[in-house]
Amino acid sequence: QVQLVESGGGLVQAGGSLRLSCAASGTIFRTDVMGWYRQAPRKQRELVATITRGDSTNYADSVKGRFTISRDNDKNTVYLQMNSLKPEDTAVYYCLLSRPSVTNYWGQGTQVTVSS
Question: 82-110, pLDDT tens digit by residue?
Fold first, then answer.
């Protein structure tokens, strides 16, 4: 079993920055992919970014150049540095640990609100 605990959300003005953290506990495998999704009101949950243990990354087009995902394998923690935030980035951000062909684990979510 894996548990994910997120932190770092909050309220920020447009153009500002926030850093999200997600710490995983339990049995973590080398093939596990970690990442972030987000869900805005009345919208479907969407990919933000993912990162493998070997630091291979994938970003949604909407956040490329503004967000940076990173991972500390020793701490089983994934980070999301969000710069140049826009009101449309407002959403609940969910941490994901994906075990390919097995299952996905989700965090409880952290609210990010960007005011204009």
Answer: 999 999 999 999 999 999 888 999 999 99
Q: DSSP readout, 87-107?
A: GGG-EEEEEEEEETTTEEEE-
Which helix (H) or strand (E) covers residue 61, if one does?
A: none
Please identify which residue in the block is written with the tokens 């923690």.
77
DSSP state of 22: E
Residue 64's pLDDT band, with cuts at 50, 70 and 90, is very high
Q: Is the pLDDT of residue 13 over 90?
A: yes
Which of 50, 91, 94, 88 shows the shortest CA–CA distance to 68? 50
113 band by pLDDT with thresholds 50, 70 and 90? very high
Q: How far does CA 95 lie from the centroid of its chain?
A: 5
Report d(CA 60, CA 10) in Å as an integer. 21
